[in-house]
Amino acid sequence: MPSREALKRITDEVMHSREDASPCLILGSFTLRRYRQQLFWLTPQPSLSQHSLTWHDRRQALTLPDGLGTLQSDAEIACLRPPIEGESINIRFQARGYYHLQGRAGGRDMKKLWQEFGVPPWQRERIPLIYYNQTLISAPGIFVTREGAASHEQGWQAIWIQQQ
Question: What per-residue confidence (pLDDT) applies to 78?
Fold first, then answer.
């Protein structure tokens, strides 16, 4: 049970902070955060924003860093276009900028997309993003960009198997 002082800090600094704030309170080896009126009690999770992996062979599952699980390819479902000659499949954990998603008119800033999909700020740099060279193609299970969308029946789907 937290002390009175800790409970006061939780109430003042997390629960009663501004509506649009992303409060974060470190208590011992845990972090308390609020997102969309919910409290989250978290263990430390390092940012993976500087990690980059190359997926050389889609027939083989790709192990993700920090126990995030694996990426697997499914050729039965064509939602991503295949890479063209000279394009490598890279996995990164950060995207900034303005993107157009498949099936939508107009584009949106990446921060707004994460908000729209309900992804808390501390998880955004821990979601594998598929790039062909420098072009963002997909966040598996979340979205596909126009540049990555399969246009015909040929294609593939990336499946993120998260570790339990």
Answer: 87
Dist CA 138 CA 100 (whole Å) = 11
Is the same domain home to 66 and 110?
yes
State which residues form the domain around 144: 52-161
* Residue 34 exposure: Cα atoms within 13 Å on the Cβ side: 17
- Side-chain half-sphere exposure of 119, counting CA atoms within 13 A: 17
pTM over 0.90? The answer is no
The whole-number pLDDT of residue 45 equals 85
Reported as a single tens digit per residue, the pLDDT across 24-77 is 778 788 888 888 888 888 888 888 999 999 999 999 999 999 999 999 999 888
Q: How far apart are CA 151 and CA 147, in angstroms?
A: 10
Q: Are residues 113 and 58 in the same domain?
A: yes
Same-domain check for residues 102 and 156: yes
Judge whether 47 lies within some domain: no
Spell out the long-range contacts of 14-19 with Cβ–Cβ below 8 A and sequence spacing 24 or more.
14/39, 15/39
Q: Among residues 58, 46, 45, 44, which one has the least CA distance to residue 91? A: 58
